[in-house]
Amino acid sequence: MNTDIVINQPTITEIKAYLEERKDAEFDPVGDLLFEDCSVADVVFLTSLKNEEIDAMTPSEVQPIVDAAREANPAFFEMNERARSVMTDLFSGLLKDIDRDS
């Protein structure tokens, strides 16, 4: 494993390109839900780690890396939180519409 992990601070253009690339990605329950406020793909994007390196780590080994990435990239994590909130609101509204129509 890479012992010198670099935490990247991507530009807005790089973030846009990453989100464009991820929009059609298949749902990965472990990769997308293991950490509270980011995905494993986000960790790969925000660090020098490769997927294979993260896959060989335990969640408790990855968590400090997530914490460092959050500290270096607060706007990215805040954007993730806002996106989750919007999706939750949309999903809740959809469920209310379904219940009302039933």
Description of the structure:
This protein has helices at residues 12-22, 29-33, 40-46, 51-55, 59-72, 74-101. With 102 residues, the chain is mainly α. It is elongated, with a radius of gyration of 16 Å. The model has no long low-confidence stretch (mean pLDDT 90).
How large is the share of residues in beta strands? under 5%
Helix content: 55-70%
What are the secondary-structure elements, in order, as H or E?
HHHHHH
Main pleated-sheet profile = none
Chain-averaged pLDDT: 90
- SS elements, strand count: 0
Topology:
Blueprint lengths: L11 H11 L6 H5 L6 H7 L4 H5 L3 H14 L1 H28 L1
Structure characteristics:
102 residues; 6 helices; mainly alpha
Brief synopsis:
By secondary structure, the protein is mainly α. Helices cover 69% and strands 0% of the residues.
